[in-house]
Amino acid sequence: MNEREWYRLDNASNIFLAAQNEIDTKVFRLSAEMTEKVEPELLQMALNKTYEEYTLFHSTLRRGYFWYYLESSEVNPRVKLETDPPVSPIYQSGRRNFLFRVLYRENSIHLEIFHALTDGTGALWFFEDLLMEYVSLKHLESEEHSDLKTKREKENLEDSFNRYFKKESRLAFDQLTRPFKTFFKAGEESSDVKFFPRPLEQQIDKKVYQIKGTKTADHRPRIVDVHLPLKKTLELARAEEVSLTIYLTALYVLSVYMTSKKQSKETTISVSIPINLRQFFPSVTVRNFFSTTKVAYTFKEDEEPSLSHICQELDQQFQKKIEKDALESRLQKLIDFEFNPAARIILRPIKDFILKVVNRLNNRKITVAMSNLGRADLPDQMIPYVKDFKFYTSVIRPQFCVISYQEHLNVTFTSPYIETNIVQWFVRYLTQKGVEATVDVNKVTREELKE
Rounded to an integer, what distance in angstroms lies between the CA atom of residue 206 and that of residue 262? Predict the structure, then answer.
């Protein structure tokens, strides 16, 4: 990747640029708790080596007249001691800074990434390789090192959205003159490709519950880490005959309802869930390759809340959403918008404004969000040196993120509000089911920070 090379952003990235703000920075973090204090010099050496293998991470973000694009940088990134609040802004308009950072503090190593660069899977690959390099430099002899560093199969720069969903034929000329009002009618049913994509999913028509609370003083998120035994939590999910993702989502929905003030009337709670498209379309791209979907549950005022019923309802909805035909249909519309001749000639600031509107409309239909990154997978030789993993993101609304490692399941709740009553109800339910939980909470209020 030389100085003159540049690349279009993938289909998922443009919305992050339009929607980011000082609260929702569109930055997410992966953390590894090591068994020993981190040595920054060795971490820098490990970063230098890993950085060579990930061409995508050499990118800076530039603004064009019509779209944003990625441009290479010849500067090498530097590891830094963590001093700022977690998931602080990374992208700064007009500056050619990296879209990721590697931080350390005592026994912890953190990778923070602006979501326009890559998704959770791409970030986890980079982070795992970084940790393998670091542990190899610090502990492993040369023979062990050669066994440890198996080259990961990956495509640094492939845009898998285009590979799987871009039509070969161009859109008809009459779509050039399609009026902008199509966007504002995006919720209407139509078999035609919209001038702008539908921002809302048709099946969630009811007004959904919105969580309110006391916002933190300096926009840092309230972070609650809940450490659970993986095996025992999986047993609870299997007892309900649903996946771990659906079980935790259903329990979160129930926790939101039970701590709300809306129990005297019908209440709809919806959840946004990302889908790793690599599970359905063969791809080893490091770039963003995911979609999101929504599931929702409506509590009736004359019905007793049931976690089992919530699990089954959410599972039925989710299984329909992840059918390959449903995914292809939705993503095809987004790609058609990106390559629509009319959309291509609209100036970037106008596109940003439109995407901001789409994002705001979409947020009205979401109560909470969740993300399950799956299992962090490291070679056996590294287990004595890496104690645990965490994963979480910046927030515009309460949400939780999940990652597992060895026999640990870490569920990290983030919120723009200081209140923790939803998490307390969530943890209390699990402990009553015999699940041991360890909880860590960060400090966000002025009184807490003074302590």
Answer: 15
The per-residue pLDDT for range 427-446, each reduced to its tens digit, is: 999 999 999 999 999 988 87
* Alpha carbon separation from 329 to 129, 256, 407, 450 (Å, rounded): 35, 32, 38, 52
pLDDT band at 351 (very low <50, low <70, confident <90, very high): confident
> In this structure, are residues 345 and 180 in contact, taking their beta carbons and an 8 Å threshold?
no
Contacts of 132 (CB under 8 A, 6+ apart): 148, 149, 378, 379, 382
- CB 289, CB 324: distance < 8 Å: no
Q: Is the pLDDT of residue 240 over 90?
A: yes
How far, in Å, CA of 332 to CA of 323, rounded? 14
- Work out the pLDDT band at 418, boundaries 50, 70, 90: very high
Contact yes or no for 324/280 (Cβ under 8 A): yes
CA angle 74, 78, 83 (to 5 degrees): 140
pLDDT in tens, 372-386: 999 998 998 899 999
Q: Which tokens go with 133? A: 């390099």
Looking at per-residue pLDDT, the higher value among 305 and 192 belongs to 305
- Tell me which H or E stretch contains 131: helix 120-138
Answer for the pair 62, 70: CB distance below 8 angstroms, yes or no.
yes
Give CA–CA dist 271/367, Å, rounded.
Answer: 6
Here the tokens at position 267 are 């209440």
The span from the CA of 26 to the CA of 20, in Å, is 6
Question: 342-380: buried (b, 16+ CB within 10 Å) or exposed (e) per residue?
Answer: bbeeeebeebbebbeebbeebbebbbbbbbbbbebebbe
What are the tokens at 321?
């959403």
* 80-81 vs 100-105, strand pairing mode: parallel
Residue with tokens 């939590």: 233
Q: How many CB atoms lie within 10 A of CB 190?
A: 10
Q: Indicate the pTM of the whole model.
A: 0.86
> Can you name the residues that pair with 27 across neighbouring β-strands?
114
